[in-house]
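Lecture notes, unit on protein representations.

Consider one protein chain, 325 amino acids long.
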Amino acid sequence: MEQLPLQQPACCAAKRTDLQLNPLSEQQEQPDLTGAASAIDLDHKMIALPGGEFSMGTDAQEGFPADGEGPIRTVRVDPFSISAYAVTNAQFQKFVEDTGYVTEAERFGWTFVFHLFVSEATKQDVASVPQGTPWWYVVKGACWARPEGPDSSVADRMDHPVVHVSWNDAEAYCKWSGTRLPTEAEWEYAARGGLERKTYPWGDLLKPDGQHRCNIWQGKFPVKNNASDGYAGTAPVDAYEPNGYGLYNVSGNVWEWCADWFSPGYHRTTAQENPRFEQETGRRSMRGGSYLCHRSYCNRYRVAARSSNTPDSSSGNCGFRVVQA
């Protein structure tokens, strides 16, 4: 297993292995998920992309070298289709209802919830706070359907991205829906929307003409969010303008799991054609940043930015989108 260096702390950094809390139940046998649904039935709005060469990564000073964002190199990907949106609560609910699948957050009995979203009543039952990221509370009973704890619900957020799903949960959904997670190269190719070497999916300015183009932190992290972009937490998956390929929210809103194992040496050790890092490192790659990202702390909503977490970890700011070859 590759030994990973310490990273710049990120809003997404809390992971299950930081805490010695055992699951409430053993890994249960899950149902046979193969081919049970289709991406078309689930209205994923798959966008066909031609593939080809693009410049992956960045050499910009605002990047995090320890994350392995660069150097820039030419990469080629084969044609594929990718969902315009992250998987929604409505789509994930159909998956759960059709299969009886139980997420890892439910099996562990807890997941990470951002401190400002936890009610006073729920705070009385917070199990722990991870060292180094005290804005994450370990909330018992929180899960994808109860994202802030037992006294919350997604009933009015069915068009928001599902959160509190681990990489393993996302893989299970993909198996059921006949899809898969994108590789990092596919994700970045799609997120760039046809633009070359730009900071964001729409260009180099964060707010062109003063308009918000993504859902990120507005204010002083982690204590005050002005929500001037319209949302303090997740936004609907089709909020803001799409990029040049028709993809929504590839910057901000929620982190998105990718297929690769995470390595800071990604650009030095993978092929230039359809790259995918397959050596186990203990952490899976995530892309896109989230509503908690802020330039002063976690400037990872840039299209070349990378992060990671353990495959069994879940939090209130991480979801996924799907692809088909």
